[in-house]
Amino acid sequence: MGLNISLSPEILFYIGQIPISNSFFWSLFVFTFLIIGAIVFKYSLRLRPGKFQSLLEMLISESYNFVESMMGSKKKAQKVFPLVFTMFFFIFFVNLLTFIPGQSAVTIKTAGGIIPLFRAIIADYSLVFVMTIVSVFVTQTVAIVSMGPLRYIGKFLNFTSPLNFFLGLMDLVGEIAKVLSLSFRLFGNIFAGEVLAAVMLFLFPFFLPLPFSFLGILTAVVQPFVFSVLTVVFISMASTAAEEATEAA
């Protein structure tokens, strides 16, 4: 039995012309579980919280305080926190799901051969790319609303001098590079961790893969935090730069 490592998710079946991959199939279950879990948790809240509710409230409260300290404003933090905390929790949750034993053993026979039914969601670059687009889109929206459309465009297309025009183009390249830096950092670390763990498990099935599994768990915790914090940083920078530009004008 060989070791099968695929950069792209495997196609399970087609609905018309739409391919359904194993990562998308797994994500449907995860989304459904999280939605149902959120609804159940909402209606199970009590004025006198139990231990589990108290723990969650403490985690959410401390997370909000952290975001507020980075944004420097309670009003801004209230708008940004739901997005970044949702991103953090989703990435963290789906990363931990990859450590459920026996997932790779569940396979399905397709026209392309026997492939695993489940695949790590964050190891699918398409989903990571969409999340990154959402993060960058919110950042640019904050900048446009704060600065105004004309001033925002003028930030990148400044014809007052050759130097300012060049710096504006560099700013534009920097904004585009955010998509690549955010998405590749998250996708690359998660995918590389899975590949390393799979190779070590294939070569040395007993004991030796354990340290790499612990390293994978650490990555599964750190990467959601990094992605969410960078999103907060980008939004905060866009808001601050807009305020400074408005004051200078």
What are the salient characteristics of this protein?
249 residues, mainly alpha, two-stranded antiparallel ribbon, two-stranded antiparallel sheet, 7 helices, globular
What's the gist of this structure?
The protein has helices spanning 22-43, 51-71, 74-97, 125-147, 149-156, 162-203, 209-248, and strands at 11-15, 18-21, 107-110, 113-116. It is mainly alpha-helical and 249 residues long.
Please give a structural write-up:
By secondary structure, the chain is mainly α. It has one domain. It has helices spanning 22-43, 51-71, 74-97, 125-147, 149-156, 162-203, 209-248; strands spanning 11-15, 18-21, 107-110, 113-116. The strands form 2 sheets. Strands 1-2 form a two-stranded antiparallel ribbon. Helix 3 (74-97) packs antiparallel against helix 7 and helix 4 (125-147) runs antiparallel to helix 6. The mean pLDDT is 79.
Q: What Rg is obtained from the alpha carbons, in whole angstroms?
A: 22 Å
The side-by-side strand order for the widest beta sheet comes to: 1-2
The overall strand count is: 4
Helicity level: over 70%
Secondary structure: elements and pairs:
Elements: E1 11-15, E2 18-21, H1 22-43, H2 51-71, H3 74-97, E3 107-110, E4 113-116, H4 125-147, H5 149-156, H6 162-203, H7 209-248
Antiparallel strand pairs: 1-2, 3-4
